[in-house]
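Subgroup meeting minutes
Present: P.N., E.W., G.H.
Scribe: E.W.

1. P.N. recapped why we're keeping a running log of single-chain structure predictions: easier to compare across weeks, and new members can see raw inputs and outputs side by side.
2. G.H. added today's entry (175 aa).
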Amino acid sequence: MPSARPLLDPVPSELWGAAGSRFQLRCSAAECPIVAKRLELPRLRSLTVDAQVAVGSDGSVRVEAVVRARVVRTCVVTLEDFEESVVLPFTASFGERADNPAPADVPVDTDTPEALDAEGLQLGELAIQHLSLGLDPYPRHPNAPSPGDADWLEGDAESEFVSKLARLTGTGHGA
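Output recorded in log:
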């Protein structure tokens, strides 16, 4: 396997072979904060992509890849940051190179593979998109209380909101 390439650099078409080429992309120290901000993460500790690219006889391109990342997430319950490891395999198919992209007002055929970018194969971009879709939108710290468990509230004091709601509805302790 070739040495690791920067994550955000496109892989030029000269580097793929018809028999299949393997690539490893690694998020550099300079790229980690950029990707973390884009994914709305407190921090991105690491991100690597191992990919195999195969070119079909019709000029189509098939990518089989695995994204491995160590991300810092913020728990939706406790608001504590915690580290999470993600391993996400994916495949993608592309049609021939798009030298003249279709105008925005032309309908897109969803059955046709997406055309390749004229700069080359954007493996890093593809990995970031798949990682974004693979992350839980409501991350929970492993030690966070289960849903419906109110024992995690400090003491037995009700929140100000609950007290006001009880007074307004005439129910509960504040009525």
